[in-house]
Design brief:
Layout lengths: L1 H23 L1 H8 L4 E4 L7 E7 L5 E14 L5 E14 L5 E3 L6 E2 L10 E4 L4 E10 L23 E3 L11 E2 L2 E11 L2 E12 L7 H8 L1 E4 L1
Length: 224
């Protein structure tokens, strides 16, 4: 009887320790089974890419533009908290078909569409949000937005693309001219591991006032 009593006591102690550990580490244990998971996509058509007139705060028209937006979807089983999209590296395709890193491009967070913030507070399972990758302005009105980049030596008929970084650098290294590019991004959240994706961008250089034609012939974006 004493032996069985000792064994029973040990089971009680073990059970108590398990319950205590579960109480202390319940969030960690829950995270093993319930966590957000991201999937990203982009198409050169609405609603991802759309024509948006740029206006002043009083509504005065400034220029026509096209915004390129990434769709970030939570395909996990828990709400993503403080989600962010980080533009890590930009490369341009050379004439010899190799890729060259653009050193003047500053790695930085991109803005969430329509609200312009770094962290999106909550993205529930099955939901998604758009993140601004960049925008193209009618080149004839580009100077009104101070998006000229002298180093690119562009003429007024050539388009440029300005990446929607949280802060536009003074040296305007976030602005690119016609060419083929690859942008590496990291998508993460407070409770989700980062995933890495690459966005391919083709900017031929021509501007079209019609949205459908511009998104067909004036720019192309896809996930590599």
């Amino acid at each position: 009887m004493n032996l069985w009593g000792t064994v029973a006591d040990w089971f009680v102690v073990l059970g108590t320790l398990i319950l205590a550990a579960t109480a202390v580490f319940q969030e960690t244990i829950r995270g093993w089974f319930y966590h957000p998971r991201f999937q990203v996509s982009i198409k050169t058509e609405p609603p991802d890419c759309v024509a948006v007139p740029v206006t002043l705060t009083d509504g005065t028209f400034v220029a026509d533009s096209v915004y390129l937006r990434l769709w970030v979807e939570n395909i996990g089983n828990a709400t993503a908290k403080n989600a962010e999209v980080y533009a890590k590296e930009l490369r341009r395709k050379r004439a010899d078909d190799t890729w060259e890193r653009i050193d003047v491009f500053p790695p930085m967070n991109l803005k969430w569409a329509n609200i312009g913030i770094i962290y999106f507070p909550n993205i529930p399972p099955g939901m998604g949000k758009h993140c601004d990758v960049g925008h193209i302005v009618d080149p004839a009105r580009r100077d009104r937005l101070r998006e000229n980049a002298p180093r690119l030596a562009l003429i007024n008929q050539q388009t440029s693309l300005a990446f929607d970084l949280m802060v536009a650098p003074n040296h305007r290294g976030h602005i690119i001219g016609p060419g083929e590019y690859q942008l590496d991004i990291l998508v993460a959240a407070e409770n989700a591991r980062p995933i890495k994706e690459t966005i391919a961008i083709d900017l031929p250089g021509a501007w079209y006032a019609d949205e459908a034609i511009m998104l067909r012939d004036g720019v192309g974006v896809t996930i590599v």
